[in-house]
Amino acid sequence: MELEEVIRQRRSIRKFKSTPIEEAKLEKLIEAARLCPSAKNRQPWRFMILKAEIKDQIADIMLQLFESHDEKLPGYVNSSRYTAEIIKTAPVLILVLREADELWTTGDLLSIGAAIEHIGLAAVDLGLGSLWIRDTGYTEKEITELIGYPELQLVSAIALGYPAEHPEPRPRKPQEALLLHYRKH
């Protein structure tokens, strides 16, 4: 598929078929991320590919957040409940981690974001769907302890599978609304 078409076809997929993802395709996704540029070539990303029970345990940790709070959680946290259910239906969950280093936070997070987008675009090219997930951040400590890496920062996660939906493109601002023009002081 041509790059422009891959970019146009990329969507956040929230419904997946139960079909397993071939190992060769998972390797291609990680390779796409590995080849991504990074600030000062730090390559700060670490990936963990999870399936089956361990993947579902991550979702359960996210759901426990709601059981352990008697008070109402802020609205944006409530999306974690829906995201946890999506994780359970996705055949694969990739956790994206990094070694925490305050001096490199901005560069590392920008680099990791680019690596995640490489995975998302490669997924489209391979006939897969993906969902870039931020909601794992609310239960980061519990998740990193479960997977055996409490010293790492859980930056994000990616749900992957063959799409069981084909959503329409979300509205986008026109280019004119995005471009700033130099203002002399």
TrEMBL record:
Pfam families recorded: Nitroreductase
Domain (Nitroreductase): residue spans on this chain: 7-162
Protein's UniProt keywords contain Oxidoreductase: yes
Signal sequence bounds: none
Keywords assigned by UniProt, alphabetized: Oxidoreductase
Highest taxon in the source lineage: Bacteria
Keyword presence, Oxidoreductase: yes
GO molecular function: oxidoreductase activity
Family to which this protein belongs: Belongs to the nitroreductase family.
Record's protein name: Nitroreductase
Protein's organism: Holdemania massiliensis
